[in-house]
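quick one, 501 residues, struct below
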Amino acid sequence: MTFFKQLTLVCLISACFFSCKEDSNTATSEISKSTYANFVNDMKTKGVATGNILVYENGKVVFKSSNGLRSINPTDSLSLNSQFRLASVSKQFTGMAIMKLKEAGKLVYDQKVNTILTDFPYDNITIRQLLHHTSGLTDYERLIAENFVKEDSTKTYILGNDEILKEFYRVSPELDFQSGDKWEYSNTGYLVLASVVEKVSGQHFRDFLKESITGPIGMTNTTLYNYQIDVDPNMPNRVFGYQLALNQKDLITNDYDIVNDVRGDGGIYSTLEDLYKWNMALANYTIISKDYLDEAWTPGQLNNGEDTDYGFGWGLASKDNEPRVVRHSGGWVGFVTFLHNEVDAKSGFIILTNDSGENFRSIIDGVRNMRAGKPYVMAKKSVYKEMAKQIFDTNVNDAIGLYHKVKIDTIAYDVSEGDINALGYRLLNENKADDALAVFKLNTEEFPKSANTYDSYGDGLLAKGDTLQALENFRKCYTMDSELKYAKDKADALEIAFKFE
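---
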């Protein structure tokens, strides 16, 4: 896996965590604006960019702030009007687009997808299954990485739905599981949904969203962006993703990916104010009737009758007989975002960041704590960053020594398997294969019960040319957790290669 793929997976895990397991308690006390302001200022003092934050209670905005960089080349600060890439927060707009077509009598949720997209190579997948992430469609990013051939090596490709579906239809990969048998977060499903909208409506998805959804509720600073790498004079408030370089000194751009023009699973840019309008339009049922939203916010159901915690583009946080709460996180290239909507209370919050999620956990925990009348806690030191700096200053052995020294100090340091894993992939991306391998090995030793650490170690071994040991680790990963199909795919590919040697 590349580092970007790792970041995507981390964000998807976050999406499930936030949607499914966070408690749904609303604020228990009146929080003053100064409390939020103190939090942002304290984070800023420690060098943490909190991005753009908006908190609202009982239908009224109680706090909003902007803290960070809109771009690093040229250097420019964020403002309250800055337009962030929403990443997977975009999925609820896709869900709404399907609902508007249903309202207009142009489709039904249990309709087979291939009755609309006639080249779609699967007979039994329904629109409802795409909405609920139960289709079984394989990941389009992996499919493109493994199959797309760049005809011009000097060209920077930016692929969208048409190019990806063409490749999907050509390859016609097997389903990851029988449709309806399980829940598995699927960007591919929402890509397909956007293409369904275009086919049924006869409009580009961008135009449909503007005409039928964002325009009528006054979201004038929200658009499905036709991605450009460089500064776009037609979108002066556009935010660019960036990250701290591995040496912990420089800032580098983190904004481009080959599939940046995909629509449906992401690609929408918006502002705090527009997203507040969106949440309120949902809470007031002004964009579509309550009956439609009641269904959209009802858990999906598997073939065995088991409920999921996901609706039509929203994660469902509340339990039966509790005030309704819907939410979603998003993560792509440099952007990590979160939209929380306590529908019945007309309260919630919005967080938009573009620094590659460097301190996102601390930011969202701080907002949640303050809304609950609890004190916020400042971000801990990152072992990931400390190790990276040590590798560049001296060597990887010193970095591992530092890890063992500070790992027990859980009050001052944040130590996690995911962080160490991400460090390994970033080292691989910077052609530091020996250092990456040492870091991956450390992770298997520190978290021996985690199957994914062996997959990552296998990637490190593969980068060093040790295919036999790589195969052994991919097999171990898949044996420990059969859900990690990517490890099996890599093991199978190596076994085939060995047969032809």
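The longest helix spans residues 3-20.
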